[in-house]
Amino acid sequence: MSSADTGRPRRFMTDRMRAVDSTVTARVHAEVLKHHHGKLGIAHARLMADLGPGARPSELARKLGVTKAAIGQLVNVLEKQGLVERTADASDRRAQIVRPTARAETLFRVGRRELDKIEAEWLTLLGPRRLKQLALSMELLDRWRVNAG
């Protein structure tokens, strides 16, 4: 049945995906804030999650879909809190690499623990077979995302 048949707007799968992502992000963020007493908004947490062992600001901007100026502002806040440091890129001394500090690693562990709890809840909710199907489907969608961009 289409949305035209019911008179209501269709709810797309992407709406549900965003809602699930928002809930996961909020839970992880809340847990991290229990262990960090500085300013750490959702945008800061997203940057930290995408940072990995280190990245150029331009890479972070692309991943997050924001400007380099926005990344610069986020990095400034995180640097003042001792969560990231900027170093020269060994392959191009003009470029910077933003890296997490040892203090940030503690927060990463907290975030990962919460993600493990969430995935355990999903296992209980979906069962092993459906969770594995979901994981495989997400891998396919991620490949689609990379190629569609």
Q: What report would you give on this structure?
A:
This protein is mainly α and 149 residues long. Helix content is 69%, strand content 10%. The chain contains 6 helices and 2 strands, in the order αααααββα. The chain has helices at residues 3-6, 13-33, 42-51, 57-64, 68-80, 102-148; strands at residues 84-89, 92-100. β1 and β2 (92-100) form a beta hairpin. α2 runs antiparallel to α6 and α4 packs across α5. The model has no long low-confidence stretch (mean pLDDT 90).
What's the structural blueprint in terms of helices and strands?
Blueprint: H1 3-6, H2 13-33, H3 42-51, H4 57-64, H5 68-80, E1 84-89, E2 92-100, H6 102-148
Antiparallel strand pairs: 1-2
Helix pairs in contact: 2-6, 4-5
Low-confidence stretches: none
Shape: globular
Report how far the terminal alpha carbons are from each other: 31 Å
How does the major sheet shape up?
2 strands, antiparallel
Q: What percent strand? A: 5-15%
Major sheet strand order: 1-2
- Oligomeric state of shown chains: single chain
Summarize the amount of helix as a percent range: 55-70%
**Total count of strands:** 2
Radius of gyration based on Cα positions: 19 Å
| Category from helices, strands and their pairing | mainly alpha
**Mean pLDDT score:** 90
Order of helices and strands: HHHHHEEH
Helix run count: 6
Using brief descriptors, characterize the structure shown.
mainly alpha; about 150 residues; two-stranded antiparallel ribbon
Briefly summarize what is shown.
This protein has helices spanning about 5, 15-35, 40-50, 55-65, 70-80, 100-149; strands at about 85-90, 90-100. The protein has about 150 residues and is mainly alpha-helical.
